[in-house]
Amino acid sequence: MQITLETKPYATLETDALVSYLFDDADPVQGRVSEVDQAANGLLRRLAKSGELTGKSLEMTLIHAPAGLKAARLLLVGAGKRDKFDGATLRKIAGAALRYLKARSVKNIAFLVREGEVTEDAAQAIAEGALAANFETDKYKTDKKNDKSVDTVLLAGYSDKERAIGEKGLSRGRIIADAQNFTRDLVNEPSNKLTPKILAERAEAMAKEAGLAVEILDEKKIADLKMGALLSVAQGGPEPPRVMVVTYTPANPKPGAPVIGLIGKAVTFDTGGVSIKPAEGMEKMKYDMAGGATMLGVMRAVAALKPNVKVICVVPSTENVVGGAAQKPGDIQTAMSGKTIEVLNTDAEGRLILADGVTYIKQLGATHLVDAATLTGAIVVALANINVGVFGSDQPWTDKLLASAKAAGEKMWQMPMDDEYREFIKGSFADIQNIGSGKGGGSITGAWFIREFAGDSPWIHLDIAGTAWNDDAKPWLAKGPTGVALRTLINLVMSY
Ligand code: BES
Ligand code: ZN
Ligand code: ZN
User: Fold this and answer.
1) By alpha-carbon position, which residue is closest to atom 22 of ligand 1?
2) Ligand 1 atom at shortest distance from the alpha carbon of 347
3) Taking Cα atoms as reference points, which of 386, 378, 375 lies closest to residue 460?
4) Cα torsion at 50, 55, 58, 61 (round to 10°)?
5) Which residues fall within 8 angstroms of residue 456, CB to CB, at 6 or more apart?
6) How many whole angstroms from 377 Cα to the centroid of ligand 3?
7) Mind listing the pLDDT tens digit for each residue in 297-324?
8) Cα–Cα dist 273/296, whole Å
């Protein structure tokens, strides 16, 4: 799908559908929408008076052959209350409009930005919303009859003088949405199509294309590095593990500047191992590599956006399956750091592979860490599919991430990390154990386990188990992988 800026007057655009949005005010027909209304002989005001056009959030009003416009259709999207309107709302409006129109086989759209909102950020939000909305998870369907993707989106409402800011926003939005869809495509892959080896190949191809340094550690190198925690998970099945290392180095790095380390959990399938999961819903565990895919997507965007900070990304990847050689509850493993771990539950495998990922990224020189992982079912209990769980060891670093999330319009909620929870993972027969012995707080003990390996480095853990997968389609996004946290992390890196 192409998205480009068009400075011609919107009334003259010969498009399949002109889209704009209106607010849930006493009079929703204002500004540019009121211009359209006048050209259409007061049709919109009549619809508003009759109660059909209200501006309520994501209300869709489709008008065919609108008078006064060259467009074949006019779609008005409800933007909700004006004082709640922000970039996140605009992104959803653009996405919902695109999905509404593509379901009706519309191929070309013009999106008219409202007066007073002709900014770089608006262009970026619209590009992000439209491109993410156009992504479908039908890769493995042979019958593409229902493949109704939109071909072109024109961004309208910008004058020639405003062209430069509009173009800049579109270009940023394209980079970010393409990265998000890259991540979503990986997350959508079933485990028979995406083993750790294949994921590593795809990471390598992405890095080379983007101009990033990349190294793939195979099972031999992983053993040489003594990544015992990762290997303990991988020993359960025939697929060898991989660790992807992708690095972005800025042209003129500031001496003494932080080095950001991104670690992502990439379990290409999580059966639970010997502590096996119930059959119902197990198929979803193909998305247990979403943290890793997110970090790879962030790196893809970083390569294009070129922040002035070094970023290292480490993605440990394995399956968690059951074979004769699988580790068993009670087994004691030695992590790369030298710490010994009592594996009381083989289904708490994400923290094991992250432990070695964190140790390794610190060895590579990362000073400020963020990990992302579909780590616990408990975070779904706590925050449902609405907020990402945020855990941090250093409040200024965590605040920076929370501010980036706010700016990206992604909902994240900080969880407590009191020392008392740390007691829950004290080992009886080894240094630590991989599940808590207390009752409850499962997401927090999981976070504490990873933190043990981060040591004094400022560290953040994002539990995306509840938010990386949409069980139902949203008006602005297909069912399945969401690409959550990617925009926040890009903002975080770009803040340097
Ligand atoms: N991959 C799962 C967590 C998960 C659950 C992700 C639901 C997405 C949706 C993780 O490896 C896991 O199984 N965690 C266990 C930990 C427990 C054994 C302490 C869990 O949450 O049940
Ligand atoms: Zn598990
Ligand atoms: Zn898992």
Assistant:
1) 377
2) 13
3) 375
4) 40
5) none
6) 9
7) 999 999 999 999 999 999 999 999 999 9
8) 26
